Amino acid sequence: MKGDLFSSEHMVQPATTPGMAVENAKCIRYTVNGEMLARQGAMIAYRGNLQFERKGQGVGGMLKRAVTGEGLPLMTVRGQGEAWFAHEAQNCFVVEVDPGVEFTVNGRNVLCFDASLSYRISTVKGAGISGGGLFNSVFTGSGRLGLVCEGNPLVIPVSQQYPVYVDTDAVVGWTAGLQTSLHRSQSIGSMLRGGSGEAVQLMLQGQGYVVVRPSEATPQKAQQH
Predict the structure, then answer these.
(1) How far apart are alpha carbons 8 and 146 in whole angstroms?
(2) How confident is the model at residue 223 (pLDDT cuts 50, 70, 90)?
(3) Helix H or strand E segment including 188
(4) Among candidate residues 104, 178, 176, 89, the one with its CA nearest the CA of residue 139
(5) 171-216 pLDDT, tens per residue?
(6) Dihedral sign, CA of 91, 96, 101, 107?
């Protein structure tokens, strides 16, 4: 077969390293030798001897998801082989999580991760139910985390001197050591007159980084995730 479709740009090459790697801008390849986890429905192809099992969240996890709207519908992948993961042709990135470090990320941006990582669903401090109910997934341990993002993300440094204010629908995640709170950028009078549509943001301060996607979730997509 000939043609641009069969060029080296699109042709999958033999794996050179075990575990997770970016196959291209829209896809992550995972060379499995044991076990890993991925979001349900994210597998687009595989080869080898692999089994895919839906991972239950348990009673506590189901209740928490029902209350918060945040959850990670996961599947466990076991065996030996290679699997490719993607989601709605979004851009893919790999984050290295080091021991003793937490990385907070929105569940809608999680694609796959090493079994050596653990996660919990946590309330964003300063943004509880009364503030709109913001909940994220906190990853700990040592391993790689595959993320998806609509467009190319912005990674913005945060410091005590220069806090960062982000739209709650655009934030992807942030590093440990950052404090969060809700910030109202409009006066009540401005809101009554219609305002700018950007009434409340999540303020992050401390020392670290916040990751933001260059788009906001539409109501339909927000419900899907």
Answers:
(1) 24
(2) very low
(3) helix 188-192
(4) 104
(5) 999 998 899 888 776 544 444 444 444 567 889 999 999 999 997 6
(6) positive
